[in-house]
Amino acid sequence: MALSPAAGRLSAHEIADEPYYRAVGDEVEIFAASYACRLPVMLKGPTGCGKTRFVEHMAWRLGRPLVTVAAHEDLTAADLAGRFLLAPEGTVWHDGPLTTAVREGAICYLDEIVEARQDTTVVIHPLTDARRALPLEKKGELVAAHPDFQLTISYNPGYQSAVKDLKESTKQRFVAIEFDYPEPSVEAEIVAREAGAEPELARSLVEVGLRSRNLRGRGLAEGASTRMLIHAAKLVGGGAALDAAIRAAIVLPITDEPDMREALGAAIAATLPQALRLQ
Ligand SMILES: Nc1ncnc2c1ncn2[C@@H]1O[C@H](COP(=O)(O)OP(=O)(O)OP(=O)(O)O)[C@@H](O)[C@H]1O
Ligand SMILES: [Mg+2]
């Protein structure tokens, strides 16, 4: 059977192999229950704690294609919904990624939605209440959502200024799942698995992560994420010395302040003698 053009568009978004995701609480059950009744979901939590990996895993688990849009400050409603573009035969409508997901029944993941222009909320509101429809004003079309369509957004309350916060009327449409860095033994398991690192090394790096997180709000906007710990473990796997790997993957990216680098370095050094014995 020939694929329809739409099926062709979405096949690129299908997730064939299971993305590794280590559940930390009841997030898998809550997301599955939300999806079962097509409720929109908001993933809240700091950077690098597994939100993107989780949504990839859930899309795979639920057998739905995943359309991801990374929001940025210039992202407009037209970037999501679509626009007319000039073509040799005149102007031709091009669906945006959200419209594609709505028509074809994908999970659409809008990453850091609060960064986008305010007009984007206008398009997501009717999609996230009982209407489940996407108005394409310029085209004069109201697209009813495919029964399998679902919207997931990520939102990091810590980083937003009041001006950029989501509106109450937006927030209150979503089921929320809160993410944080997992408890040390679980985080070590993740770091070891993702970086192919020895458990001992992973545990030491998690200790480094904990130290850095203690400086959160005391000069550091955020401590080292699980992502950073994985990077450090990969550098060690690639031949770097542990202290050099920590400096390159954690200390230097996380702050530009010399004083803070020193404080962080000292906090980390306190964990290192034991860790260095691994080398
Ligand atoms: N629970 C977990 N299971 C498996 N891998 C995880 C988990 N948590 C974090 N990771 C690892 O950490 C990396 C960073 O996670 P991810 O990209 O999902 O973060 P994020 O929360 O989406 O961050 P951001 O807000 O910056 O987009 C992943 O690539 C994965 O390797
Ligand atoms: Mg992400």
UniProtKB/TrEMBL annotation:
Signal peptide: none
Top-level taxon of origin: Bacteria
Keyword entries, A-Z: ATP-binding, Nucleotide-binding
Gene3D superfamilies: P-loop containing nucleotide triphosphate hydrolases
Limits of the ATPase dynein-related AAA domain: 40-174
Pfam family, one: AAA_5
Residue ranges annotated for the CbbQ/NirQ/NorQ C-terminal domain, each copy included: 187-270
Molecular function terms, GO-annotated: ATP binding; ATP hydrolysis activity
Family: Belongs to the CbbQ/NirQ/NorQ/GpvN family.
PANTHER family hit by this protein: DENITRIFICATION REGULATORY PROTEIN NIRQ, MOXR FAMILY PROTEIN
Annotated protein name in UniProt: CbbQ/NirQ/NorQ/GpvN family protein
The organism of origin for this protein: Hansschlegelia plantiphila
